[in-house]
Design brief:
CATH topology of the largest domain in chain A: MetI-like fold
CATH class of the largest domain in chain A: Mainly Alpha
Oligomer: heterodimer
Helix content of chain B: 25-40%
Radius of gyration of chain B: 25 Å
GO cellular component, one term (chain A): plasma membrane
Order of helices and strands of chain A: HHHHHHHEEHHHHHHHH
Helix content of chain A: 55-70%
Largest sheet of chain B: 8 strands, mixed
Main location (chain A): membrane
Shape of chain A: flat
Number of strands of chain B: 23
Number of domains of chain A: 2
Strand content of chain A: under 5%
Membrane topology (chain A): Multi-pass membrane protein
Pfam family, one (chain A): BPD_transp_1
Strand order of the largest sheet of chain A: 1-2
CATH superfamily of the largest domain in chain A: MetI-like
Strand order of the largest sheet of chain B: 7-8-9-3-10-11-13-12
Radius of gyration of chain A: 25 Å
Family (chain A): Belongs to the binding-protein-dependent transport system permease family. OppBC subfamily.
Shape of chain B: globular
Largest sheet of chain A: 2 strands, antiparallel
CATH class of the domain at 329-400 and 489-575 in chain B: Alpha Beta
């Protein structure tokens, strides 16, 4: 029996979301602890890296003292954490610049890249997925699927190099092959440097998302409620856009979140092939240089990014699924959200 | 009319009937008889892999099969409405019901102005018995009860004022009480508005008080058409007779007779009469000639060479069994409290005596399944005292020792989901034998054969996989799986509710036989007719408490509480 619905009350997903936020922050904190301890366990001494192998022992000890590396590890951690909470990520050992400033530029670049990928891949995946689902099992669908699978099987760097060959050869020089972004100019004035990296990453993310949208569209199109609406004489365009797509979007959101999570930690493909100055290469060189503050800062930022993407995806899922959005208790949301399975995907009760 | 599969096998053929305005036609048949195919074919729709191949569906002068595109869309809904089986699946979870109704109305009558639309919506909602206020229309389907959802489906069909409505088992997913209300609403609306209706059902009992005429389908053909009174008093086709004999009744305990064998799949119809292999009245001519539908008199048509021409003989009434109750019950439950995120069972006490069949009756949500699971040791979070054969028994199956665990076995509601699709039946039966008795090889094989024979399945079944079997056969396998454990108590959770009526009769007869051999049964169900057929004693559960218990005849004939009186009245209404 449904209980009377009170509209004045706070929605149950709000406490659920606050709980999830808390868990996200806890995750970030645990990761920061792990990273801090792991960097301490690296088999070399930052002071020696900075001063070089020839440096005398006294100056190394002096530097260690200056950097605070001689203190107990917990004390070091808490002073670092206190700094972080004040927004100060420390000074890079390698370049002697503030870590926060370095990260701000590089992470900004990565975010711009992700935004570009999203703007290209979302409409494309939706159009292709919906289109193929509507023409399911036709020749177009079979060839479309085959193409997507070939694209998926092609290694990312091949796609990237192929794009460079297509668009940036001397006789056909449309787009820059290398993303020589000038850090002093705003990014939005150098969008041509973004084009090829965005394109390459979109192409490698597209097959997965398009097939996800196609599969969930087919499932929703086969559902009883779409069949019933069709037999009620609801026009085809409304069937597709109002009855099917909103229900097919939920799995797609989790798919997009998965793609973003992989890309956020470093779209290494683009960063290496196009020398795109993102956070991945920054972290890589920081590890090689044993630049502890930079490693810690970069990992912290990436972790927070991943946590944020997860949170947003879950929030969107709940908001787009009426049953979860209108749940009366936060515990119901937890129980219904097992992976990306939607609650209405019950196995058929009767045999066909 | 004819519908065939891509392979060319016909699903339904030689279908021919007409309906007067306001007339309700019942379309009855077992699963696989092609009744749902016929129902959607009336709307010029065939499921994937099938197509409508010739024929004519003419509603109020419009030939639906000749239409396409925009004209067909307008005819669907506007001229002929459709109400699907499970309202929980047939309502879009992401759209508020008010919007669904408005959308349907606008798709067919875009010219209506706002005031006229709202007036029509309010009128329709009142007709189907739903509150019309704005707050209600803003609800999503999951915020409604099953009965309300089905009323919304009815409103979606009736809001367009169609000439014909096709209802495809609209009450199968509902409780008995809700079912009776929905049936009454359908009948009232059809008569008031002069709408003809085709009501599809697998259960003759359900439509007894609803329809004017009944059409019985078997293997894609119409085998009998008759007025309601004639069909129930003097069925002409042996198949109809078999269906009628399989319906359990609340009022009296009768011996149910199942129809032997099962219906042929499309493409595997035998030559001649499709029912001949299962027919008790067959002759040599039956397997040579396919009988056409012929009129017996004004109100009855039968497709049979040897139609029954006399009234149905009075059924045998089963003798009332007296179970001698031992002084100590076999299973004794005291003070059970169970909660998940809310409390489901309250202070529940129960005795099960050796050799009896105890029915646990209740509507959905009453906690009857939770009670059964707790007895089986599958319930989490229960607190209470349970003893078995005088010995205390844990409420958790994993804390029971193997020697007692195999003595209580559980059979699940849905045989389509209770068997592992990747295990052959043999493997499925072998696992408990190895686990409990350490049997291997020939000894194991012998036990499996014995168990299959006991549930009346051939020994070759062991090599098959669940998808090779029909629903009734699967449920027999599930029973065999419980039997190989050599249980003393079988807990049956709605074991027949996913099955056809005639198959249900066969399963009930099997359980009855097992009981006669000394098995103790705990039978969970919401169907009082089934209870009357099988149970010796009844426990009625409501909101997690036992509100009435006693001997079956006692409780059903002289209910002590208003609630049980209501249940019995509803069950009698629909039977």
């Amino acid at each position: 029996m449904p209980e009377p619905i009170r509209t004045s009350r706070l929605p149950a997903w709000l406490p659920w979301f606050i709980g999830r936020l808390g868990y996200g922050l806890l995750t970030a904190w645990v990761i920061s602890l792990v990273v801090f301890i792991a960097t301490q366990a690296l088999p070399s001494d930052p002071a020696r890296v900075i001063l070089g192998p020839e440096a005398p022992l006294e100056s190394i000890l002096t530097l260690r003292q200056q950097l605070g590396l001689d203190r107990p590890i917990l004390v070091q951690y808490f002073s670092w954490l206190a700094q972080v909470l004040r927004g100060d990520l420390g000074i890079s050992l390698d370049s002697a610049q503030p870590v926060a400033g370095l990260l701000f530029i590089r992470f900004g670049n990565t975010l711009a890249l992700l935004l570009g990928v999203l703007m290209v891949v979302l409409p494309l995946a939706l159009t292709i997925g919906v289109g193929l689902a509507l023409r399911r099992d036709s020749r177009l669908d079979r060839w479309g699927l085959a193409t997507l699978i070939v694209l998926k099987a092609t290694p990312g760097y091949l796609i990237a190099i192929g794009l460079v060959l297509l668009f940036s050869m001397p006789h056909f020089d449309l787009l820059p092959a290398v993303s020589l972004i000038d850090p002093d100019r705003p990014l939005w004035r150098q969008l041509d440097y973004l084009a090829l990296p965005v394109f390459a990453l979109s192409l490698s993310a597209l097959p997965y998302l398009a097939r996800l949208v196609r599969a969930s569209m087919i499932e929703a199109l086969d559902s009883d409620y779409v069949g019933a609406a069709r037999l009620r004489g609801v026009p085809q365009w409304r069937l597709v856009w109002c009855h099917t797509l909103p229900n097919a979007l939920v799995p797609a959101i989790q798919g997009v979140a998965l793609t973003l999570r992989t890309l956020i930690g470093g779209a290494l493909l683009a960063e290496v092939v196009f020398s795109y100055p993102g956070i991945g290469t920054l972290l890589n060189s920081a590890i090689q240089m044993r630049d502890l503050p930079l490693i810690q800062g970069a990992v912290l930022v990436i972790t927070l990014g991943v946590v944020l993407v997860n949170l947003l995806a879950d929030l969107l899922t709940v908001l787009l699924t009426p049953k979860l959005r209108t749940a009366r208790r936060a515990s119901l949301i937890q129980r219904n959200r097992r992976g990306i399975q939607s609650w209405w995907r019950r196995p058929a009760a009767k045999a066909p | 009319m004819r519908v065939e599969l891509d392979s060319g096998a016909d699903v339904i053929e030689h279908i021919d009937f007409s309906l007067a305005p306001g007339e309700i036609l019942g379309l009855v048949g077992e699963s696989g008889s092609g009744k749902t195919t016929l129902a959607t074919a009336l709307l010029a729709h065939a499921r994937r892999g099938a197509r409508i191949n010739g024929g004519r569906v003419s509603v109020a002068g419009t030939d639906l099969l000749a239409l396409d595109g925009e004209a067909l869309r307008r005819a669907r809904g506007g001229l002929i409405g459709y109400v699907a089986q499970d309202p929980a699946l047939a309502l879009n979870p992401a759209i508020r019901i008010g919007k669904l109704l408005l959308e349907t109305l606008q798709a067919h009558e875009p010219g209506l102005d706002r005031a006229a639309r709202e007036q029509r919506l309010a009128q329709t909602l009142a007709d189907v018995g739903l509150p019309g206020e704005r707050e209600f229309l803003r609800r999503f389907p999951h915020q409604l009860s099953g009965g309300q959802q089905q009323r919304v489906m009815l409103a979606l069909a009736f809001v367009l004022r169609p000439k014909l409505i096709v209802l495809d088992e609209p009450t199968t997913a509902l409780d008995v009480g809700t079912r009776a209300h929905i049936l009454a609403t359908v009948r009232r609306l059809c008569k008031e508005q002069g709408v003809a209706a085709v009501y599809v059902s697998h259960d003759l009992g359900v439509i007894k008080d609803l329809v004017d005429r009944v059409m019985v389908m078997y293997a894609g053909r119409i085998v009998e058409v008759a007025s309601r009174e004639r069909l129930f008093s003097r069925p002409g086709h042996p198949y109809t007779l078999g269906l009628l004999a399989a319906i359990p009744e609340v009022g009296r305990q009768r011996v149910l007779r199942a129809i032997a064998g099962h219906a042929p799949a499309p493409g595997q119809r035998p030559a001649g009469c499709a029912f001949a292999p299962r027919c008790p009245r067959r002759s040599a001519a039956c397997s040579a000639i396919e009988p056409a539908l012929q009129g017996l008199d004004g109100v009855q048509q039968v497709a049979c060479l040897h139609p029954q021409l006399i009234a149905v003989p009075e059924e045998e009434i089963a003798p009332v069994q007296v179970v001698h109750q031992a002084r100590t019950p076999l299973l004794e439950l005291r003070g059970l409290n169970l909660s998940y995120d809310r409390q489901v069972l309250f202070d529940l006490s129960l005795d099960v005596h050796r050799g009896e069949c105890l029915a646990v009756v209740g509507e959905s949500g009453s906690g009857k399944t939770s009670l059964a699971r707790t007895l089986a040791g599958l319930g989490d979070g229960g607190v209470g005292a349970l003893s078995f054969d005088g010995q205390p028994l844990s409420l958790m199956a994993r804390k029971r020792d193997a020697a007692t665990r195999h003595r209580i076995q559980y059979i699940f509601q849905n045989p389509y989901r209770a068997l592992n699709p990747r295990q052959s039946i043999g493997q499925c039966l072998q696992a408990p034998l190895e686990h409990f008795f350490g049997l291997k090889g020939a000894a194991c094989r012998a036990r499996i054969d014995a168990a299959l024979a006991r549930v009346a399945l051939p020994a070759e079944t062991a090599a098959k996989y669940p998808h090779h079997l029909s629903g009734g056969e699967r449920q027999r396998v599930a029973i065999a799986r419980a039997l190989v454990c050599e249980p003393e108590v079988l807990i049956c959770d709605e074991v027949t509710s996913a099955l056809d009526v005639s198959v249900q009769a066969a399963i009930l007869a099997l359980l009855r036989e097992l009981q006669a051999e000394g098995m103790t049964l705990v039978f969970v169900t919401h169907d009082l007719g089934v209870v009357r057929t099988i149970a010796d004693r009844i426990v009625v559960v409501k909101d997690g408490r036992i509100i009435e218990q006693g001997g079956t005849a006692e409780v059903l004939d002289r209910p002590g509480t208003e609630y049980v009186k209501g249940l019995v009245a509803q069950a009698k209404f629909q039977r």
